[in-house]
Write a structure and sequence with these properties.
The chain has about 90 residues and is an all-alpha fold. About 40% of the residues lie in helices and about 0% in strands. The longest helix has about 35 residues, at about 10-40. Keywords: Membrane, Transmembrane, Transmembrane helix.
Length: about 90
């Protein structure tokens, strides 16, 4: 079955705007994709004068003063108790 009233000139006029919009959207998407690829593919060569990063478990520099406590081995969250308020002076 064919459409009963086909006017090709009228159809061209009606479809012109949406087709241009789709072409612009595809062009913007392709430009954005190429920009993203160019940003991800750029590799910076590290300077050879920089020292290598410390390995896990390796101490770098003097130890800090005080102690640091973390959660128990049970995986329970750390509970921080507030300091007692100073007693008022008479």
């Amino acid at each position: 079955m064919t459409a009963p009233d086909t006017n090709l000139k009228k159809q061209k006029k009606r479809h012109k705007g949406p087709l241009i919009g789709m072409a612009v959207a595809v062009t913007v998407a392709v430009v954005f994709l190429l920009w993203m690829l160019s940003q991800n593919l750029v590799t910076d060569t590290p300077d050879t004068d920089d020292p290598t990063p410390a390995q896990a478990g390796e101490t770098v520099g003097p130890p800090a003063e005080g102690t640091v406590s973390g959660p128990d081995d049970t995986g329970a969250p750390q509970v921080i108790e507030p300091e007692p308020a100073p007693e008022p002076a008479d």
